[in-house]
Amino acid sequence: xxxxxxxxxxxxxxxxxxxxxxxxxxxxxxxxxxxxxxxxxxxxxxxxxxxxxxxxxxxxxxxxxxxxxxxxxxxxxxxxxxxxxxxxxxxxxxxxxxxxxxxxxxxxxxxxxxxxxxxxxxxxxxxxxxxxxxxxxxxxxxxxxxxxxxxxxxxxxxxxxxxxxxxxxxxxxxxxxxxxxxxxxxxxxxxxxxxxxxxxxxxxxxxxxxxxxxxxxxxxxxxxxxxxxxxxxxxxxxxxxxxxxxxxxxxxxxxxxxxxxxxxxxxxxxxxxxxxxxxxxxxxxxxxxxxxxxxxxxxxxxxxxxxxxxxxxxxxxxxxxxxxxxxxxxxxxxx
Amino acid sequence: xxxxxxxxxxxxxxxxxxxxxxxxxxxxxxxxxxxxxxxxxxxxxxxxxxxxxxxxxxxxxxxxxxxxxxxxxxxxxxxxxxxxxxxxxxxxxxxxxxxxxxxxxxxxxxxxxxxxxxxxxxxxxxxxxxxxxxxxxxxxxxxxxxxxxxxxxxxxxxxxxxxxxxxxxxxxxxxxxxxxxxxxxxxxxxxxxxxxxxxxxxxxxxxxxxxxxxxxxxxxxxxxxxxxxxxxxxxxxxxxxxxxxxxxxxxxxxxxxxxxxxxxxxxxxxxxxxxxxxxxxxxxxxx
Amino acid sequence: xxxxxxxxxxxxxxxxxxxxxxxxxxxxxxxxxxxxxxxxxxxxxxxxxxxxxxxxxxxxxxxxxxxxxxxxxxxxxxxxxxxxxxxxxxxxxxxxxxxxxxxxxxxxxxxxxxxxxxxxxxxxxxxxxxxxxxxxxxxxxxxxxxxxxxxxxxxxxxxxxxxxxxxxxxxxxxxxxxxxxxxxxxxxxxxxxxxxxxxxxxxxxxxxxxxxxxxxxxxxxxxxxxxxxxxxxxxxxxxxxxxxxxxxxxxxxxxxxxxxxxxxxxxxxxxxxxxxxxxxxxxxxxxxxxxxxxxxxxxxxxxxxxxxxxxxxxxxxxxxxxxxxxxxxxxxxxxxxxxxxxxxxxx
Lengths: 335, 287, 347
Prior knowledge:
Chain A is of the alpha/beta class. Chain A has a domain at about 10-225: 3-Layer(aba) Sandwich (Rossmann fold). Helices cover about 30% and strands about 20% of the residues of chain A. In chain A, helix 3 (about 115-125) crosses helix 4 and helix 5 runs parallel beside helix 6 (about 190-210). By secondary structure, chain B is an all-alpha fold. Classes of the chains: A alpha/beta, B mainly alpha, C alpha/beta. Chains in contact: A-B, A-C, B-C.
C-alpha cells in the first residue's frame, strides 16, 4: 500500500484495506473490485462515484457484509468484520447492526407483503426490544423521517416513491447504526422529491452523528453531500480527495472527463470544453493492461499500458493513481 | 383502495366468480351431504328398485343395487374433495419446502433437487401413481399417499423460480443487514411473497388430482366399493352404459363440473394475484 | 451551436410549424374508470429546432409523444380529443397504413432502453439495411452500403466489424448510436427522443447528446427531446415545454425558463436541484424542497394541479383551474399568479 494511513488517530470508524471481489470462475475472474482501500471517520461522508460497472456498489455490499470478499480486510471500529476467531457469532451479530444500508429502488427495498409496523418493529424485536418499546421506537422513527405514525398499518404500495424511501431510511435508522451505506439512495426518485430526501439524509446525519458511504453516479448530488470523494474506474479507486479539491482541482484524467461531461442546468453557462473519449468502457472480463483508463485517456503516455498505477499522495488528503499526472503536479505545472 | 372497491374488482373477474361459486356449492354439498341426500348412499340398497330411471323420488335414478344415484353423487363430493385437498396439502408441502431450499441455497442443493424434480416430471403421473398403488395396495389412504407423492414438481419449480427472484430483492438484503437469520428470511420475508403463485398451482393441482382419483378408482385402485366415489361409480357403471346411462352420466358430470370449476377458480386467482395484472398503473410508460 | 440558436429564434414568427399539436387529451382505462393522463396539450415544433419536453414521471410527457404517432397501447390508452397536424395532415385521423409510412420515415423515435427496441436476433447491419429496404426501397446491396454509411455517420468505431454484430454484443452507448442511426436513415424531418440518455453513463450521455445535436445540424431534423433531466435540457434544447400532471404548465425559450421561470413548479424544480459548483461558491445550503408528491392522475387536486404543493397558493387556486396564458407565441404559463413574466422574454 502506497497510501499512508491518513487518520492515524483517532481510529477511523470504517477501514477497508486492499479489498478485492471477483466474480465468475476462478480461472477467468471478473475483478469487480480490485485492491480498494478506503476509510471513513465518524460523522464523515465519503462518496464513492463512478459509472455503472465500476465496482462502487459491490464495494458497498462488501462493507455491509452482503458480498463475500475475495481478499482484503474490512474493519469497523477497530475490529475485523471477517469470519475469524477473534469474534464470536453473537459479537458479529451485534457489530453488523451498526452498519445499515439504504437502497436505490424504493419499489424493491420494502417487502410488499409487510406493513410499516412489521417492517420497522420486527428488527427491533429481534434485537431484544419489548413489544411496547418497539412500537414506541417505530413511531418515533416515522416522525423523524417525516411520516405519520398513524399510517403504520399501511403497506408499501400505498405510499409514493419518496415516502417509501423515507421508510427505507427509517428502517436503516431503527437499530441505531453508526454507518449507513446509501447505494444510489436518491437516484431513482423524481426530481421534485430528490431534494426532500437529500435534506433528510443531511438532517439525520447531523442529529445522530452518522457516517455515510454515499454511492452515487450523480456528481451534483455528491458535491452537495460529500466530505471526501473517491472516484472509481473499473474496480479501482483512481482519485480520492476532499470534495472541494476534487471539484476545483481534479488531477486524474478520468475525473476531469467525468466532470466535463455532467450536464448543468444552466443554459448560459459556457461549458468547459468537453473532453471527448471516443471508445467505450472496456469489458471488465479483459481489462486493458497497465492503467485501465489508458485506451480512453486524452493524455495517454507511452508507458501507461505497461504498469498498473498505484494511488500516490499529492498532498496528505489528495491521492491519484496516474504517474504522469503526479509528475506534472510535482513539477508544479498545475495546482 | 377501500374494501368496497376491492370487492368490486374481484367481482369483475368472471372466471374467479363463476369458478368460485361452483367450488363453494360443491364444498357445501360435501359438508352438508347428510342433509342434502334424501337416502343413505350405502345402506339404503333395495334390489327391488334396481336401475330405475330418474324420476321424482330418485332424481338421478338408482344403481344396480337400488341405491339412490343422487345421494351417492352428493356423498361422492366428499371423497373427491378430500382427495383434492389432502393430496394438495402433501404436494404443496413437499414442493414448497424443496423449492425454497433449492432456490435459497442454490449450488449443489439446487442441482440435486432440480434433478429429482426433472425425474419426477419425466415419469407420467398416472404410471407413477399406479406403481405406488400397486405396491401399497388399493384403498383411499394409499391413494392420498400415491397422489400426494407424485405431483409436487410444479409447485417445487414455481417456488424455486419465485425464490430466485425474491432473494435478489433489496428488502432481503436489508433483512440480512438487520441481522435476520436464514430461516427467518426464508419464511418471514420470502415465503409471503411466493404464496400467490403457489396457491394458483395448488388449485389447478387439486383439479388434476380429482381427475386422477377418478381414473384410479375407475381402475379399481381407489376408494373401494361400496364407498361412494365418482370414479368408482363410473367404473361399476361400465357394463350398464347403454342400458342405464344415468349411472355414468351423473358421476361423470359431477367430475366435469368440479374440475372445470377448480380450473376456472385457479385461472381467476392467477389473474388477481399476478402483480403484472395490477400494473395497469395510469401514467406508467407503455412499452 | 449558439449561432444556430439565435437564428432559429429570430425567424420564429415567419416559419410554418412542422408539427402542431392542439387540444390533445389521452386517458387510460383503470378499474375505476378512465383516468386522464394527458389533458389538453398543445404545442408546436418548427423545422430544425430542438424542443425539450420536461416533466417528472407521471407528468404525461412520454404518453404525449407516443400519442403523436398513435403508439400508445390501446386498450388501456385512448386518445379522446385533439389534433396533431404534421406537414398539413392530422396524424391522429390518419389510417394506420399511411401512418406507418410516416413512422420511421418522416418522423422517427428513439427510446430510453435501446436493447428492447432492437431485434436481438438480427445483426445491427441487417437491421439498419432493413429500414432502407422498407422505406427507401433500396436493393439488398445498396441497403448494406447505406447502412455502413450511417454507422460511420454516428461515429461508430470499426463500422465494418460492427455491422455483423448483434445488439447483445454492444454496450448501451453503442446501442443508442445504432438506434440513432436507424432513426436517421430516412432523413426524418422530426426526431422524437424519449429519455435517450437516461439509461446511459455520464460520459456516454454527453457523447450521445453531442451526437444528437450534430445530427440535427447534418440532417436538419427537428428534435423533440423528452427528459426529466434539466441539465440535459439546458444543454440541448432551444425551447422548453414543462409538463406537470398531464398539463403544460409553462413554455418558453431555454433562457427564459432558466432565468425567469414563471410557474411556481418550474421555479421550485430549478431551486431544488443540487447544482454543480453552487456549494463551492455559496457553501452548503439546504436544498429548497417541494413538499408532497406528484399527484395521482386518478385523484388530482381540484383547481390547479400544483395547488397542493405550491408555496404561493391562494384560495382561487384550490377551486379554479388556471388557463394557459400566452404572452407571445413561445412564452406561456398556466398560473393565476405567475412569478415573473417578461414579455420580451430575455430577462
